[in-house]
Design a protein that fits this description.
The complex is a heterodimer of chains A (about 325) and B (about 190).
Chain A lengths: L17 H17 L14 E6 L5 H12 L3 E6 L11 H10 L4 E6 L4 H8 L4 E7 L5 H19 L3 H4 L8 E5 L6 H13 L2 E5 L15 E2 L3 H7 L2 E4 L15 H8 L3 H6 L5 E3 L12 H4 L6 H20 L3 H4 L2
Parallel strand pairs in A: 1-2, 1-3, 3-4, 5-6, 5-8, 6-7, 8-9
Helix pairs in contact in A: 1-5, 1-12, 2-12, 5-7, 5-12
Chain B lengths: L3 H8 L3 E10 H19 L5 E6 L4 H15 L5 E4 L29 E9 L3 H11 L6 E9 L11 E5 L6 E6 L2 E8 L2
Helix pairs in contact in B: 2-3
Chain lengths: ~325, ~190
């Protein structure tokens, strides 16, 4: 178990202890306040250089990371892969070595291959590597901002501030994750975070969209989707990932929607107060009915806005006290 | 006993070994009352006064000063709390400090600010606090009140209101709370 991400890479949420996750959430709480100020900037990472390397399309994660780095006063090098030497066939290792030669302190990386971030962390051991999504493996900051959002909303309901509660609100919390579990790095990170914090997690999906090794995961598989919806305190939806070929795992999108989509009828049958979450981008009308996405119990916009403070916390904790610095 | 100094020491795996108690809780209360009177004496009008406590060690002292000053002024003196973690210059030397909340509910532009901290040592926390404060507006003036001034300044910073001047050696440590002031040493547990 890793008890803190201070000065470490953030490649996966697997193996992070409850304390490590709570530390990120509490730090993010301070950054929420920074983001509400007139001057939304602190000098914490002044002089540090953060490279953002997105080998796969992304708007919100990339913008959110770059905003986070800038609000910490770090310099941001942003590699647009589409117009870079990667298109000319440069290897991952050469790309990283070249960028490292410019003098960087951290890499925020998204890649279509599982394990790419870990690979890079071996190429440049003196640089902190933050995984912004690798293939089907992990998307740690999404997992963190999801549990952060849940803690924030439940904290507001019970009239406590997040930092006071630690992980208390997660004890016995019932979380249902629905949809394309097989292709979802978000599901893998979410599950790791919820389980570490003490929540109970069920997954619901057509058999074809469940990973083959689901039996070894710390979750139960729900047999009856509608029963599981009534059971849940939090319903986490996942995007059906066409680009990873999810379409061929279900007979038709319409059938997926009618069996595992959160339709307006299903949303109305939820227990009052059940939170509806989605990591975005949504396929409105597929995994989530357009009207459901706009219900007050859907906290999707909040997930997006919490992305910045969570990523500030991750950059701050991983970069401060990093090896390169402590050698000075 | 929970001051910023102590928490940082704990993070470095050190504990505080008490040598002796220098001030009792009564002494601390008396010193705070005197400081409140000094602040009133200096400011006459308390209408544009803001008390800003530094997280976390300065918070209890700031709260006490605010209630004393509100009594003396016959009106509410606004309190703010400032966390300077993200403004520190020693992130690379020290582990990441525990950040606490900054809560300043009013615009500081044009206000006469008194920063309040528990122990004044190198002056680096105050340097960070001044930078942080400027992100919240442009105060008309900024003064500094500390419970203990232990010397060893590394920056040209001096307090305006002092509870107690305590000459110390560098290897000594001070813990100051509303319950009293102690001198001791840091040691690995």
């Amino acid at each position: 178990m890793i008890d803190s991400i201070r000065g470490a890479n953030l490649l996966t949420l697997d193996g992070l202890s409850r304390e490590a996750i709570v530390e990120v959430l509490d730090t993010a709480e301070s950054f929420v306040e920074v983001n509400q100020r007139a001057i939304k900037k602190v000098p914490a990472l002044r002089g540090r250089v953060v490279a953002s390397l997105f080998f796969e399309e992304s708007t919100r994660t990339r913008l959110s990371f770059e905003t986070a780095a800038k609000r910490l006063s770090a310099d941001v090098l942003s590699l647009a892969v589409a117009s870079s030497s990667v298109k000319k066939g440069e290897s991952l290792r050469d790309t990283i070595t070249t960028i490292d030669a410019l003098g960087i302190d951290a890499v925020v990386m998204r890649h279509q291959s599982s394990g790419a971030a870990e690979q890079v962390s071996r190429y440049v051991p003196h640089v902190r590597v933050i995984n912004a999504g690798d293939g089907l493996h992990q998307h740690p900051t999404q997992g963190l901002l999801d549990v952060f959002t849940v803690r924030q909303v439940l904290g507001e309901r019970s009239g406590t501030s997040g930092a006071e509660t630690g992980a208390e609100l997660f004890a016995g919390l019932r979380v249902l994750i629905v949809g394309d579990i097989r292709h979802s790095r978000v599901a893998r990170s979410d599950i790791a975070a919820y389980v570490a914090l003490g929540a109970t997690v069920r997954v619901a999906a057509p058999g074809t969209l469940l990973p083959e090794d689901v039996a070894s995961w710390p979750v139960d598989v729900a047999d009856d989707f509608d029963e599981a919806l009534r059971w849940a305190d939090v319903v986490g939806l996942l995007r059906l990932q066409h680009e990873r070929g999810s379409g061929s795992f279900v007979p038709s999108l319409a059938e997926f929607t009618s069996t595992y989509g959160l339709t307006i009828e299903r949303a109305r049958a939820l227990a009052p107060g059940t939170l509806i979450m989605h990591p975005g981008p949504m396929n409105r009308g597929v995994e989530i009915d357009s009207r459901v996405a706009d219900l007050p119990s859907a906290v999707i916009a909040r997930q997006v806005s919490n992305g910045v403070p969570i990523r500030m916390a991750v950059l701050y904790l991983t970069l401060a006290g990093s090896e390169r610095e402590s050698g000075l | 006993m929970s001051t910023s100094e102590e928490r940082q020491a704990r993070q470095r795996g050190l504990t505080f070994l008490v040598k002796s108690q220098l001030l009792t809780s009564d002494d601390v209360a008396r010193a705070l009352r005197r400081m409140a009177h000094e602040i009133v004496e200096h400011h006459h009008e308390l209408t544009d006064l803001s008390i800003i406590g530094l997280q976390r060690g300065g918070e209890p002292f700031a709260r006490t000063l605010v209630s004393l000053l509100s009594e003396l002024a016959g009106g509410d003196v606004p309190l703010g709390l400032l966390d300077v973690s993200f403004y520190r210059d020693d992130l690379s030397l020290n582990p990441v400090p525990d950040s606490a909340m900054t809560a300043i509910g009013h615009d500081l532009t044009g206000r006469q600010v008194v920063l309040v901290d528990d122990v004044l040592f190198t002056g680096r926390t105050i340097r960070a606090a001044l930078n942080a404060l400027m992100d919240w507006g442009r105060p008309r003036s900024v003064q500094l009140a500390v419970m203990v001034d232990r010397g060893h300044r590394e920056l040209p910073i001096r307090p305006d209101y002092v509870g107690k001047n305590l000459p110390t050696s560098l290897d000594e440590a001070i813990v100051a709370t509303l319950e009293g002031v102690w001198i001791g040493t840091r040691a690995a547990p």
